[in-house]
Amino acid sequence: MATILNMANRASLDHALHNEAVCKHLNKTPKHLDWVITTAFYSALHFVTHKLFPFDLEVNGQTMKIKNLNDYCNAKGDTRRKHNKIAELVEEREEDIADSYCQLRDASWTARYNQYTYGREVANLAVRRLKEIKEYCTASASTASSAVSEKVKMEGREKSERIKTAKTTQESKQKEAEKKA
Known about the structure:
The chain has helices at residues 2-26, 33-52, 69-76, 82-93, 95-113, 120-138, 141-180, and strands at 55-59, 62-66. The chain is mainly alpha-helical. It folds into two domains: 2-138, Up-down Bundle (Four Helix Bundle (Hemerythrin (Met), subunit A)); 141-181. The longest helix has 40 residues, at 141-180.
């Protein structure tokens, strides 16, 4: 069973790398920047799939091994709108990349169905988002944990600084009021 799961997980990673190579190839010229965006998204989708699955899900009091998106949709009883389901899973389980993933998905949708002419900067933004998603999804657990831990520490330091600044400002105002009185 573990071998089958590892093979499916490896297939997602291989597909992601394949799409990334196509994206890089297309990005060498300004001719098909809509497809740079599209292949960046599909590469990201497979990196995310690699990261998300497998996982355990509690359904009707039983724990199910969710090996892929089809298993997830079947367990939820809704096999429609699979792109939305992946986005929901990313938002729930991989918050650090949720904005980049959803923005890339939306840009790809627009490129495929509404507007196919884009400038280099939009294509480059898609490639940067892909790079961020790839790095996050392929980082070892300890690296990812370190990154999250460092982010939490930084947010804590920033919060401490804001509190300290607010306290200093409040004390200054208090001293100023005392001088006037």
